Amino acid sequence: MAFGRLERAATSRPMSEINMTPLIDVMLVLLVIFIITAPLIGSSLKLDLPRTDAGQGNDAPVFVALAIDAQGQMFVGDEPASAEVVSQKVRDAARRDPATEVRLRADQAVPYGRVAELIGLVQQAGLNRIGFVTEAPSK
Questions:
Q1: Domains annotated on the chain, with CATH
Q2: Predicted model pTM
Q3: If you ran DSSP here, which 8-state letter would residue 137 be given?
Q4: Distance, CA of 41 to CA of 15 (rounded, Å)
């Protein structure tokens, strides 16, 4: 042994394998971040929702998302759908669980008659719990 210098023992050899622990740690952290942020990502359907501060959020576990854009086109989730398709999807949801809630997003420019028509389709299909999605007013 030389002064100020440590020598390795003859039996110790450098590790030639990649240490996977830091990589797995980083991947788990990213997975947690994506799991938390995925529900927060908004819909890709752009609507000008009415603004009100009276609405309360509802955390219904089972719901059907319906929307009407400014041109009066109906959507199930973010996919365009005809009145027949909307009625069938709501009817299927009502068969699975009669307590399913409908979350209705309608653009401000949509005439009331078009919204009433969609509510009628939902009620005829067997669901009565309808929530209107709005935006909080900007302050």
A1: 63-132 (3.30.420.270)
A2: 0.59
A3: P
A4: 44
